[in-house]
Design goal:
By secondary structure, the chain is an alpha/beta fold. Helix content is 33%, strand content 27%. The strands form 3 sheets. Strands 6-7-8-3-9-10 form a 6-stranded mixed sheet, sandwiched between helices. Strands 2-1-4-5 form a 4-stranded antiparallel sheet. It has a 4-stranded antiparallel sheet with strand order 12-13-11-14.
Length: 313
């Protein structure tokens, strides 16, 4: 990751945003800022307020209160000037199925008022960046899911934006396609572009994000650098125990040796700062399987927001 100049003015600032839908306070006092060359991740369960926050940032939803400033301008007063410096990749592809890959970029570039000569000069570079140089004349229906997502990213870059807003950009992709997308996003960060990323993939957030906001019930419940958040809120190690008789350990002396024990289905999670003290007696128990690993961002997410399934509203 590039070194961030936090003494410079941030590209994007949101102060105390609120948005209510009927009795539902979807966003309750969210504030954030994003600096040049920084990826800010926004994570949280379904219904936490991520999409509403993103929509307010894009000017698609008007906040009930709060202020949004970008590049020294105000949203929505300077909405068109702000949007000219943004690139957006939505959760669902909105590519035109009747146009080729190159034509999708050409038409989209015209929305920004760019001269055709400028757009056509950028198209080959962007298609190569998206590893789609050989698909310039193909239509979206001929592309795989990963190719469509990369084409959406290339399209979002046609106006050479300073800030990209990405709403779950790798949902539905296979591991190879996800890793290629991550590689491209890291290249953009190295170029000094900013990224606001929402994601449900904790490995993606840990890999890409300089800082994270954790949202739940419309509020920011934690924020900071991924590894610092993990160290602040979690024990050092996790031992997952499953197999015949695993659940009986929840009331055993072994459980009292851990700082915290959680159950999910037929698996127990022992959170501990002294893993050897637990691994030794576990090795003597027949019929059990265990996995010892460092605490990670998914553990943080589950501790802060709970293990209960949240249905999208």
């Amino acid at each position: 990751m590039p070194t961030l100049d936090t003494k410079a003015a941030p590209h994007w600032v949101c102060n105390d945003l609120h948005k209510r839908y009927g009795d539902n306070l979807a966003v309750n006092g969210v504030s954030l800022d994003i600096y040049a060359g920084e990826c800010l991740g926004v994570i949280g369960p379904n219904g936490a307020g991520k999409t509403t926050t993103l929509r307010m940032c894009l000017g698609l939803t008007t906040p009930d209160s709060g202020r949004i400033q970008a590049f020294g301008m105000d949203m929505p007063a300077d909405e068109l000037a702000i949007k000219s410096r943004l690139g957006v990749v939505s959760q669902f592809d909105s590519l035109d199925p009747d146009f080729t890959c190159a034509e999708n970029l050409l038409v989209f570039g015209r929305y920004f008022g760019l001269p055709d000569a400028t757009i056509r000069a950028r198209i080959p570079q962007l298609l190569e960046f998206a590893a789609l140089g050989h698909k310039a004349d193909a239509k979206p229906g001929e592309l795989s899911g990963g190719m469509k997502r990369r084409l959406s990213l290339a399209r979002a870059l046609i106006n050479d934006p300073d800030l990209l807003m990405l709403d779950e950009p790798t949902t539905g992709l296979d591991p190879q396609a996800r890793h290629l997308m991550w590689e491209r996003l890291q290249q953009l960060l190295a170029q000094g572009k900013s990224i606001l990323l929402t994601t449900h993939f904790m490995d993606e957030a840990e890999r890409l994000c300089d800082r994270l906001l954790v949202l739940d019930h419309g509020r920011v419940i934690a924020q900071g650098k991924p590894r610092e958040l993990i160290a602040q809120h979690l024990e050092r190690d996790v031992i997952e125990v499953f197999g015949s008789g695993a659940l009986a350990l929840i009331d055993s002396p072994m459980a009292r040796m851990a700082q915290r024990v959680e159950r999910s289905g037929e698996t127990l999670f022992f959170y501990t700062d002294d893993a050897p003290a637990l691994l030794a007696p576990l090795a003597l128990l027949n019929g059990l399987r265990s996995l010892h690993r460092p605490a990670n961002l998914e553990d943080l997410f589950l501790k802060l927001t709970g293990r209960q399934i949240r249905e999208a509203s």
